Amino acid sequence: MNCESCELKELEVEQFEIREALRCILHTIFFHRALGLVRPRDVDCELFELTYVQCGVPEVEKEIEEKINEFITKVSKHPNRRNQICLSFYEMKSKQSAWSSSKTERVYWERWFVNLQIINQRVNTKSKQTRVGLDHGEFTFEEKKLHRSALEASIRENLLRIIKFANEKMDHLPHIPPNVEGISYPYEIAILSSAESSLDILKRMLQTGHQTTLS
Amino acid sequence: MAAQPDPGRSTEQIVSQFLSKALHAILAARIPFIHGPTIPTSRPPRKRDRWFHLALGDPPPALEHPSGLLPNGVMEPLVVDILLSPREDPTMPEAIVERWVAQCEVPAPWSPLHSPAESSSNSFLVKRTYKKSIILLRSIYSVLRLLPAQRVFKMLCASNQSYNYDLTYRVSSFAEPFSRKEEAEFRSHYFSPVETQYGQLAVSVQYRPSLSQFNLEISSLLPPMLITDYVGSPAADPMRTFPASPSERSATRSSISYSFRGSRDGRPSTSAPASAPLFNRPHSWTGAPNEGPSHRAQPAHQPPTGSQRKPTFNFDEFKFSPPFYMSPTPSPPKFSGSYMQSPLRAESAPVSIPQSGTSKVKGLRSPNLSDPTRNFLPPPSPKSARTAEPSSQDSESKSFRKPDGLRISDAYSNMYGTPKGPKDGKDDSGRFSLSGSPRFTFSRSSSRISVPDDLDDPDFSYPFAVDDVDSSDSQARSNDGKEALDFGHASSSHKSQDAAVGELVHMLKTAAPLRDSTYSSQSSKSELQEEGLGSTSSFFMSRMASDALDELQSYKNIKEMLLSQSRAKLHESLRRNN
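Predict the joint structure of the above. Result:
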């Protein structure tokens, strides 16, 4: 089975926007991949004029929040790095080898890469430069307004991209277990930074032994 | 219950259910108040929820029978137009803001999909069709939230004010193509088709990227309404329950009427009396929402106004308000069952409660059951007022029920003593104050009325406070005894005071006028005699103890007077003799 991967457009977010941006994206992905019975729940973003859908599975919501908190903590410790969250879906398969007993291993069949660029420092730098001017307040506000609009458009574009990808790539999906509610496939959420992402991918390639298709 | 279709389930059923569910999702996300209440998570999923693993709740009655959606089969396209209809100016044309098209496209004869599949692969194809349909439905659901019309929908749903536009819909099997100019104003989004045995199930949406041209704004606030049956008004029937809002009232009415219509002929129909059944016409039906709060008081189903609107389709259209459900508003204030069933409630008006302490005692002095309206009402104790409060379940009813409950409870307590309050405290006001009728109270507790535990106010005593035989009421029993003793002590001292007052009054009435002593003595004697006879006769009219004391005192006075007169006469006679 091929492992399909989808790399989303990089988002330039401020520190306080990370949570909402990640919620939109991760929940939308889950909504399209949690193929058990769900009770969808609309959520209006607080920072953006966006409405996304949650699948209403408390465990998923909890894990997403935990990972977002972890991500925010990591970002604050290591600023100015390209940060990435990787949401992977896999299935457990037993692998029989000639010289060892069978063992179960994870076989990833889909990966989603969410790329974030934290821009706190850049805005602050600019604001410092404009403090001398008389209209530095208006400039900062205008810049933030533009940034917010651009980010909202980027998130919307990413959501549509997720929907398109989820809609187009369906043949690789494993069989849906019967009588399941909520999550139908096991998953994992990994936080990667710019220095780790390529190494981590290489590690996984070696572990799984599958070719990763690039989007 | 299997979530996935059995291998034997036909593709036709899957497609039919898919179209129905897609329509449900579209209408729920575009037409305000058409959707039912939110599904409680505790409710087990129903069969219709399990279709495509997407629980959307109860569909509108129009979608109860998905087979009626496409009477000509699943190969017929389903076209759903979402329109912005101007409310204030019906002459203005409606504008389509979204057009959803779902259809099963027959593959070309040369297409590999055209060849009939083997039976062994049919099952596999059905499963794959179903799996992909699940994802396709999720995508439709998500895209609905990302399109510009979602914002308009949220505005119309969130606000209680009426806007100058309404979101309406039109479902048909044929859609007139857009003109070139209109086409240029729309963008398209195509979902990946799902392969089925009948072809490819394709869904697409054409939408306006911007709705700023419609200048959506608040048209008017809720029209001023004169509420004549407000809570506590003399005209209001106190037994009547008040709905939460006019919208809920009309929603209830409309939903009931619509469901009746739906069940009458087995399929949803329009409101127009001359209209044909819904799907006998060329597969089209339209709906307008309840049109905001200002229109909710109107009948839910109005005669078709198609003549006033620009016909955009080449078949008749029927306008009706789609079925809508009661909005999830708080429940209206309601009386408790016992409260409503109490006969006392129907008999007596709220009784005023005197504030003075003497009046309280007065009431205790004369427990005349034959005259229940006598003013022997003790003032309410603070605890009695608390227990008369309504239950905490209905916060809206608190302010409404409290004063009435308090008054009625006092009427009860004053006449028969307050019955025992309920232990659970669930509905304290009704049960505490009006736990059945007074007669019921008597019969239940063997002519004994227990004092509630929380009425520990020492100043509050009942005319018939007696011990309760119930073992759980031991505390009340002690309170009862104490109050009974207090009752006895208080009465004797108060009786003397009342007697004194009565005597004083009587003396004032019967006091001798300020005249000549000779004349006055004779006249007063005669007067006194007359009055004494009169008063004597009147003395015997009242049998009350205070009256008896008065009588006694008056006798004493008369005696004194007579004696003084006799002495005076004696002195006079002696003087004359001398």
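Confidence is low (pLDDT under 50) at residues 121-138, 210-215 of chain A.
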